[in-house]
Amino acid sequence: MKPILARADLFRCPLCHGRLTAGETSLRCEGGHDFALSKKGYADFCPSAKAGAYDDALFDSRSRFIAGGFYGEPIERLKVLLDTYAPEGPILDAGCGEGSFLKALVPEPATRPCIGLDLSRPGIRRAARGGGGWLWAVGDLSRLPLQTSSMTAIVNILSPANYPEFSRVLRPGGVVLKVVPGERYLCEVRALVKDLLRHEAYSNERVVKLFKDNFEMLGSWELCCTRSLSPAQAADLVAMTPMTQGIQKEQLNTAALDSVTIHLHIMAGRPR
Questions:
Q1: CA gap 128, 207 in Å, rounded
Q2: How many other C-beta atoms lie within 10 A of the C-beta of residue 204?
Q3: What pTM was computed for the model?
Q4: What residue ranges do the domains of the chain occupy?
Q5: What is the pLDDT of residue 16?
Q6: What is the DSSP annotation of 119-183?
Q7: Contact, 105 vs 82, CB < 8 A?
Q8: Among candidate residues 180, 7, 179, 164, the one with its CA nearest the CA of residue 89
């Protein structure tokens, strides 16, 4: 049985909110809505969703770049925070992309259910490569296909959020771990394309305030380091970051990109 079918109890229909049960190759609700599993084993809760801007090539670049260890310190900090605030129970990576962060956070998902959800079908398709016990789903953050009070932790890494839905699916005492860019995040890339951006500078003040308005803060941590880049890593970085989406490759002098700054702000909170 596919891992996601074995944990059908964690999911609900995003259309009628009915409980889902496992069939041979799909999850089906009491109202007759049926969500087929792909051959790779992921569930698609948004089968009519249009293709987004992110494609397979972008997620391949993102996977290689994360595998290069550039997010090693934030990942280790998140592991500690999970051990501290939510050592057991199901985890949701909301906006998981191609799944690299969730796989790094919980390399052996047999110890606890780990759900990676994203609206991007290419991202989830890549996440599901190679099997494993993670539970992958194409889904909308505004209509999470999860039972109320089913998660002990939600990680939301460099991704949009839906705080009412996060609060709904968290168990009492559950925690949200949100990672947002700091003002110097990828500042070398920002400098490279500054003449092509609407805003040359970046501030996370609005995002941080919104989190504090919705959650009781358990703590916040700021991490910043600068590392050198190989030409291949620079190419992957430019290909993966939304900052360069819509910019023609010939407009980017990636040869000048020989280092990168990873500046992140991690917040831990519980619903008020």
A1: 30
A2: 16
A3: 0.94
A4: 3-271
A5: 96
A6: S-HHHHHHHTTT--S-EEEE--GGG--B-TT-EEEEEEESS---HHHHHHHEEEEEEEEEEEE-T
A7: yes
A8: 7
**Reported confidence tier of residue 253, pLDDT bands at 50, 70, 90:** confident
Residue-wise pLDDT for 222-235, tens only, equals 999 999 999 999 99
User: What is the number of residues in the chain?
Assistant: 272
- The whole-angstrom separation of Cα 180 and Cα 62 is 17
- Say which range, 121-130, 182-191, 192-201, 254-263, has the weakest mean pLDDT: 192-201
**254 conformational bin, left if phi > 0, alpha if psi -120 to 50, beta if neither:** alpha
Looking at CATH, the fold of the domain delimited by 3-271 is given as Rossmann fold (3.40.50)
Residues 110, 130 contacting (CB under 8 angstroms): no
Report d(CA 13, CA 148) in Å as an integer: 12
Residue 261, both tokens: 């700054």
The answer to whether 33 and 13 have CB atoms below 8 angstroms apart is: yes
pLDDT tens for residues 177-201?
Answer: 999 999 999 999 988 887 766 666 7
CA distances from 63 to 94, 102, 111, 112 (A): 17, 12, 24, 23
* 27 burial level (CB within 10 Å; 0-12, 13-18, 19+): buried
Q: How many CB atoms lie within 10 A of CB 253?
A: 10
